[in-house]
Write a structure and sequence with these properties.
- The protein is an alpha/beta fold.
- It has a domain of 163 residues.
- The protein is 33% helix and 23% strand.
- The strands form three sheets. Strands 3, 4, 5, 6, 9 and 10 form a six-stranded mixed beta sheet that branches.
- The chain is globular and about 45 Å long.
- The protein starts with 6 loop residues before the first strand and ends with a helix.
- The mean pLDDT is 97.
- Keywords: Glycosyltransferase, Membrane, Transferase, Transmembrane, Transmembrane helix.
- This is Glycosyltransferase family 92 protein.
């Protein structure tokens, strides 16, 4: 729907039915699955695990991809004016062929006080409350212009290559950090406690992402088509 043609998907210790879900896409050559079985004890270790995965993907993408979006499975690119992300990147590159990295800002979504997303609903149509604007971002890069991956959010570019930051009037990344209340309490809170963050603090972070803002609206235009593709309508 957004113009992405191929996915390098890294499975970091997931134990659900991911292979069953992904098999049709793997057979069609849309998804390339990599098992990434590295555990961690602290947040910094997880950042390093992510960077190694991204570096692995960048190495492959340099031979295969014109643009590479670096993001997690709970993050969704949402163009505001352009019909797709691929069209937005075409417009960006047309302005300057030396652009090698595009920064796009997060909108962090909360649980919307929903215990569990119903099976006949999409997460993106159910969880609408969010924390508004953020100074955190993720990036889309031209792989051949990247020197190395510096963090899960940013790459270092080769000399003379440029980076641009796109504002919320152009694109946003919907980051469903907490997912629903069930995921928050059963998965997210214990995970953060493992990092020595107490549950009260985690729940305060989650609460700060449960506000009504204008940033819930841009993704809504994609819901009808996505529901059809997911077999929900």
């Amino acid at each position: 729907m957004q113009g992405f043609e191929h996915f390098y998907l890294y499975n970091n210790l997931s134990h659900d039915n991911y292979k069953e879900v992904l098999e049709p896409y793997i057979e069609k050559g849309i998804v390339e699955l990599e098992e990434w079985p590295y555990d961690h004890e602290i947040a910094d270790e997880f950042d390093a695990i992510q960077c190694k995965a991204y570096s692995h993907a960048l190495k492959k993408a340099k031979k295969e991809a014109h643009w590479l979006a670096i993001l997690d499975a709970d993050e969704f690119f949402v163009p505001i004016k352009a019909p797709t992300i691929s069209k937005l990147l075409q417009e960006t590159e047309a302005r300057d062929k030396k652009i090698g990295q595009v920064h796009c800002f997060w909108i962090v979504f909360g649980t919307s006080h929903i215990w569990e997303v119903p099976k006949d609903k999409l997460m993106i149509e159910t969880l609408l409350l969010n924390g508004g604007t953020s100074n955190l971002y993720k990036c889309i890069v031209r792989p051949k212009f990247v020197d190395y991956c510096a963090s899960p959010h940013h790459c270092i570019l080769k000399p003379t290559i440029k980076m641009v930051t796109l504002g919320y009037d152009t694109v946003q990344i919907n980051h469903y950090w907490t997912r629903d209340e069930k995921f928050l309490h059963e998965i997210k809170v214990p995970r953060r406690e493992k990092y020595s963050t107490d549950s009260t603090t985690v729940l305060q972070w989650a609460s700060a992402s449960n506000n009504e803002t204008i940033y819930s609206k841009p993704i809504l235009r994609f819901i009808p088509e996505l529901r059809k593709r997911m077999g929900l309508d």
